Amino acid sequence: MIKERYHNYLIGFVSCIFLSFGAYSIATSSSGKTNYYEIFVIGVLALSQLVIQGIYFLHLSLQKKDRYRLIIASLIMLIIIILVTGSVWIMNNLNSHMMPSSNDMVKYNQSQDGL
Amino acid sequence: MDNNLAIKAENSKTYLGFWIYILTDCVVFASLFAVYATLHSNTNGGASAQMLFSMPLALTQTLILLSSSLTSGLAIISALNKNKNKILFWTLATFILGTIFLFLEIREFNHLVAIGDSWRESGFLSSYFVLVGTHGLHIIIGLIWMIVLSFIIIIKGLTIKSMKGLVMFNLFWHFLDIVWIFIFSVVYLMGHMGL
Q: Domains of chain B by range and CATH?
């Protein structure tokens, strides 16, 4: 069992290094223009590192003794997803509705009487 | 195997409670990530993430923190083998790697402030400093924890209490590594690609 855990640590470490280098090489070889496909791939690599570290470092599993930790973790992940996507969605919409470009402001001012 | 103290510590309620604390800390970081995602393009005419961050430095920090995560795990393996000296050795290795990581982070902050990109310049830089600074603060707490833990293990030996401390510290340190992976991906890599 100790040996198995030792191997788990090594597997997790090596695969995380590969994934980090993979994400790094995608980012540094990109043209500098925003490419949503590449950004999506980097996001997926980060999430797979999360899963790998969860399994091999935090030894989460479906076994009975780990189940409580897994259930709590899944619930918190749900909260985090709602929190982050919700905030980003709302705030981006606010930005586009409440921050007219300076060009629009000038046009608006000119359309008003007495300005 | 079941009377192994490290296993007992991992099956204790203390460990489950600490796990819940870790997940609430995740919510703190998630909020800071949401703030960063909202503000990262508000540069106020100043530098953006694309111009500012050094990619090799970020990769070095990632590898250092990942290695320290491994050494902290090896300390647990030594605890399962009931080898006190090895626990102390791997904890020391984790401490050294953590200190190097913290040094690099502080040096980067210093550099940013020195070239006139401090947290006062724009919404982007404020949220960057808060997000990465909070992570650095956790690292400092982890470093202090390691010192205290080593003294407890040296003085009291391998008791159930010190083993609980060790497995909880290990969880905390893995958690910091996971948070850093997301900082690395979202702030540094995606910033470099001009998101």
A: 5-192 (1.20.120.80)
